[in-house]
Each structure stands twice: as structure tokens, then as C-alpha cells.
Amino acid sequence: MKDIILITGASRGIGAQIALLASQKGYRVALNYLRNSEAANAVVRKITDSGGEAIALQADVGQSDSVKKMFQTLDQTWGVPHVLVNNAGLLTSFRVEDVNEDNIDEIFRANVYSAYFCSREAILRMSTKKGGSGGVIVNISSVASRLGGLGGGSAYAATKGAIDSFNLALAKELGSEGIRVNAIRPGLIRTTIHEAQGGLAHIEQVAKTVVPLGRMGVPEEVAQVVMWLASDAASYVHGTTIDVAGGR
Questions:
Q1: What residues contact residue 234 under an 8 Å CB cut-off, 6+ apart?
Q2: How far is the C-alpha of 95 from the C-alpha of 115, rounded, in Å?
Q3: Kindly report the CA angle at 137 between 136 and 143, in degrees rounded to 5?
Q4: In what order do the strands lie in the sheet with 28-33?
Q5: How far, in Å, are 184, 216, 239 from residue 221 at the CA level?
Q6: Which uninterrupted H or E stretch holds 137?
Q7: Per-domain residue ranges for the chain?
Q8: Per DSSP, what are the bridge partners of residue 30?
Q9: Does residue 142 sit in helix, strand or coil?
Q10: What end-to-end distance do the CA atoms of the chain give, in Å?
Q11: Residue 174 in contact with residue 181, Cβ under 8 Å?
Q12: Whole-structure pTM value
């Protein structure tokens, strides 16, 4: 039976590329999306047309009950995931003096609460302490956590700083329960998430001056590292964070 991977925020960008690569490596792929069912189903079709197995699971992973329902649906469809990738995220741009309860809550729910809620449900199923057979959790952070983000990016940077701390703490909690936990900090990656910061053309120019390799990365480069962390080749890698940022 093929292993199961659950990827949040997988209808496009980095998440979609993780889904495609995971299928190529023999996983059954459960990809979560929030609103864009058309994009999510397009990824599913790419996988199934190539002979793989994939399902799309709609859920707002920033809401506890929605996450519970998503995992219950996966339980009934395929079973317990062997790998969870906490990839769902939101990039917004606003200065600190423009913070209000709505915009700060939105980004923390999308970027931080989601990791807690999804990890909770995965642990309840994976942990050897709770009768599970172990597993892997990969958290997607950002180099913004140590660079402070681009202009107006303090809230985004703060959420990713939270993910860095969460990743280390979670690894310490779960090391004896058969669950490996690691994180990845992508840098400037060619995805539509940068629409909030002037669009790809602008970020491409920024990358030429601030990235030592002189270019943006592509989602496939992040996906390769995710799949390595999920594999037995990384069996003694735990509680670490890997930068995929071209030296930035």
C-alpha cells in the first residue's frame, strides 16, 4: 500500500509542486485547498492522468473544526497520513500602524494556527504513544523569519518566526514518539504569492540584487527538499530548519 501525504495549501505554487513530486515518488496525495477548487482539481487531474492517486480536500486550515473534518474525511477515504506538510500560508503587506484585529488575525490563522491545528490531528493519528506507527511533519517557514521580510512584511515575518520556534519545540515533543519534524525556509520563490509585494516582475529585479545566486528560486527546488526530508534518506534529521534561498 502506498504511503499517504497530506499537503495544505496545495492548489498552486510550492504546495502544488510538492504534490506533483510526491506522486512521482509513489505517494497517494491528499491536497488541501481553501477556495480555488478549479486549481486544486487541476493538480489532481495532472496526478491521476499520470497514473497516480490524488484527492482534493477543501478546508480552512486556520479553523480548528474545519481541520478536524478534513482529517476525518481522509480517515474515511485512505487512512492516516504518513507525511504532513504544513504549507498553507498567506502573504500580506501592511505597516504596523495599520494593524487591526482583522488583518493580524487573518495572517496568524493562515500561517500559524493552521500548523498547530493540522499537526494536532496528525499527532493524534501518527504518534506511537497514541497507537500510531509514526510519521513525518514538514513545516514551511520563510527566510523572512530572520530577515524581517520586505516592506510592510512585519506580520508575515512574525508568523514565520513563530513557525521556526514551533518547529523546534514540536521536534522536542515528538522525538520519542516516532514522528520526525523539520522545517524549510524558502527565499524568493517564483509563485503568485508575491502579488502582495508588487508582483513577480518586481521581485525578479529584487532577487538580482539581494540573492547571492542572482535569481529567484522555483517551486520544484523547494519540493525536492521537502521530499528528501520526508524520505528515509533523512532518517536522522530532526528539529532542523533548512534554507532554500539561494544563499540569502
A1: 180, 182, 228
A2: 24
A3: 135
A4: 53-58, 28-33, 4-7, 83-86, 135-140, 179-186, 241-244
A5: 11, 11, 21
A6: strand 135-140
A7: 4-243
A8: 6, 55
A9: coil
A10: 40
A11: yes
A12: 0.94
Which residue type occupies 102?
Answer: D
- What residues are labeled active site? 156
Q: List the one residue out of 1, 106, 16 whose CA is nearest residue 61.
A: 106
Return d(Cα 149, Cα 169) in angstroms, integer. 23
Average pLDDT in the chain? 95
- Look-up: residue for cell 499520470? 50
- Distance separating alpha carbons of residues 234 and 155, to the nearest angstrom: 32
Cell of 65: 473544526
Summarised one tens digit per residue, pLDDT across range 118-151 is 999 999 999 999 999 999 999 999 999 999 987 7
Residue type at 93 in one-letter notation = S
Here the cell at position 182 is 523539520
Q: Are 186 and 139 in contact (CB under 8 A)?
A: no
Question: 4-243 sits in which CATH class?
Answer: alpha beta
